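Memo to structure team: turn this sequence into structure tokens by end of day. - J.P.
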Amino acid sequence: MSNRRLLIAVAHPDDEAFGYGGLISKYVAQGVEVYLIVSTNGDVGTVSPEFLNGYNSIAELRLAELDCATEMLGFSKVFKFGYKDSGMMGSETSNDPACSWQAPREELARRVVEVIREVRPQVVLTFNQYGGYGHPDHIAIQRATADAFKLAGDTGYVTDGQMPYQPQKLYYSSPAPFWVRWRIWRALLGRNNPRKMGRNNDIDIVAILENIEPTHALVDVRDYLAVWDKAAMCHASQLAGPRGQQPMWFRRLFQGRQGFTRVHPAPVANRVDEYDLFAGVQLDAPQATT
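Reply from structure team:
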């Protein structure tokens, strides 16, 4: 095992590349072992018919795209939980008992604990409490990961043949408020409703802004934007348009840092005080359990 290990927990094939491609590329290049949990198979995602050529289902296509991104980004291991995609909040598919949104919270948390105890990451990363944009599957894996972060080090919480292990740091992704506001302004200028955006008019950008949590860490990913783009292109069925529409110089200047909310250890103030998710981590130090 490497002396630095990062576990990222997401909901759908594409969340890893679209949301964290720059961060993952950077840490893998630095020798960090990066592990990924994907809780669903993405089968409710909107897919144009031409992308299904050669595939028997949307789920098969989405998981093949995940395999492509895995190869591009260099994960040490990907854990696919295999739940059905819930679709957006209030949809008929979100009531399917086989989707992750309907799975018992303790069941999903237990599966995350088992992964934590297997790979022993010092740092764990997942969505914010709103799930980024209010998607039920995102919220479900976020809650389960937050629960599992505490349970993994509990000696009284037993999983089959595994020793307790307590990660040192927990982060949530933190969108930049400026760019969310910019998307709202752009929607309004285009006479679109910012509460009904996206391919299916089910993304509420105003709610995204209202649920942003403070940023405590900014990680420079400017040198990894090209790899990020290539990984994102693996998920071609989910791209509404080409990535990288702005010139690279513009993106390096204004979009070259990814923000994160540090949940544990709790910050002393809501300001940026870190530029590396492994700042202050004791590498392979004995872990206290509760």
